[in-house]
Task: structure prediction
Amino acid sequence: MKGNIHEILSLARTLACVFQRHRDRDRRRLLSDSCRSPKTPPTPLDPNGLQKKAESTPGFTGKWFVQLASKPTISGGSPQAISSQQKTFGSDVSSRVQVTEKHSRLWNGVVVKTDKAGLEEVVKASNVKAVFPVLSVAMPKNQKSKVLPQMRRAGAMTGVPTPIRSWALRAKG
Result:
């Protein structure tokens, strides 16, 4: 169960970056450095370089996020086109590449579990836009805090006491 939580957190970070790109493009804002697209044309994916970098990164799970070419549905992508791309991807790779998850709403892609030879197939498959390693992220330890929520006084932060006083409202029937 712990592994699944870490993979979900890693996916959430990736999707947050994709969502930020979508939001910022629509609002014509500059992207943060961590999400900025390269200004040079993309280079072909190098499976050996990807594998080496992933293996040297702490928390690598042996799984990969595979981003496909179509836009996700939140950006106006067609669900039929996305489904078609995901099926084509599944038929382009051998049985050594196991598709464990499919995503289409915020991000168009799949999560695969594979070895080095399977990664070469993934990179060469049609409609593959990018490949990212899935990393396991340690959950922060629960730290004891001296600050506790003050629910009895939360009304002051929301402005609720003003109408209660002015309208003489009481918590009765």
